[in-house]
Write a structure and sequence with these properties.
Helix 3 (37-67) packs antiparallel against helix 4 and helix 3 packs parallel to helix 9 (204-220). The mean pLDDT is 91. The protein has one domain. It has 12 helices and no strands. It has 276 residues and is an all-alpha fold.
Length: 276
């Protein structure tokens, strides 16, 4: 047990290091140092998540709406400032709750309840990348079905997911809509990241990185720009989801929609629109 406890302390030491790095640069020490470890971790996740949301959102909006105006989107397809401020407001109300999920997952990892390991050197590079691949397949499968059930189960849609689907036209979607969910909706769609920890061994820091990459990915798939990269569930696919409500539930790739019959290709949609 002593060896196990010493090993688990590596996770605690690592999260404490991340807490100090983030919190010491953003807040006076007297505001966070006296807090219990769990609350320090939550505060770090909340501040880091908020910064990531605003930095990625503002940079992406500046690039596609200002620097590349009329290149990727015509002017009349750009969402209004009012729409983007509403999306930011919804996301900020939910952010304290969103960031509870990674905080709880870190606590479970520190307690030894998951299959996470601390150092990449504990496994071969082959097993490291294989575990990431399996982890992402499980996450993709879980998010697909969670998202689909949020549509198919009417009370879940009405009371949770409809908050996100008020943005149902191209000129109401923006990178800031990526986290504009009811708090419970956003947590449910991220839960597969945590469930996968109990199934497949995954490197601790890699798990955290993939979880926080969600903020960047969700900003990307709400910009309405079809990247046309095969197998990637990009913004072109996700825009169709926001306009039809019954296609393209997947997250990173089109595979789950293809397997379960809900895929709608943006290029086919354009052809149909021209035919009409």
């Amino acid at each position: 047990m002593a060896v196990d406890a010493a090993y688990l302390m590596q996770f605690v030491d690592e999260t404490s290091f991340y807490n100090r790095i983030v919190l010491s640069h953003l807040l006076p020490s007297n505001l966070w140092d006296p807090l219990p470890h769990f609350l320090q971790t939550w505060l770090r996740n909340y501040l880091a998540g908020t910064l990531l949301y605003f930095i990625s959102g503002f940079l992406w909006c500046f690039y596609i709406y200002y620097l590349k105006l009329n290149v990727y989107l015509p002017r009349d397809a750009i969402p209004t400032r009012k729409a983007m401020l509403l999306q930011i407001s919804v996301a900020m109300k939910a952010m304290p709750w969103y960031t509870l999920l990674p905080t709880v997952s870190e606590h479970m990892i520190e307690s030894g309840w998951t299959k996470c390991y601390s150092r990449i050197g504990e496994v071969s590079w082959f097993l490291y990348f294989l575990s990431i691949a399996v982890y992402l397949v499980l996450v993709e499968f879980g998010i697909y079905w969670m998202h689909r059930e949020l549509h198919d189960i009417k009370p879940l849609y009405k009371y949770l997911h409809a908050t996100h689907h008020i943005y149902n036209k191209q000129n109401t979607l923006s990178p800031f809509a990526g986290l504009a969910f009811h708090p419970l909706d956003g947590i449910l769609q991220a839960v597969p990241h945590v469930v996968a920890l109990f199934i497949v061994p995954i490197h601790f820091t890699t798990h955290l990185g993939l979880l926080f990459m969600e903020a960047i990915w969700t900003a990307n798939i709400h910009d309405c720009i079809h990247g046309n990269i095969w197998a990637v569930m990009g913004a072109g696919y996700h825009t169709i989801h926001h306009t039809t409500y019954k296609h393209n539930y997947g997250h990173y790739t089109i595979w789950m929609d293809w397997m379960f019959g809900s895929l709608r290709d943006p290029l086919l949609q354009e052809d149909d629109n021209k035919a009409e």
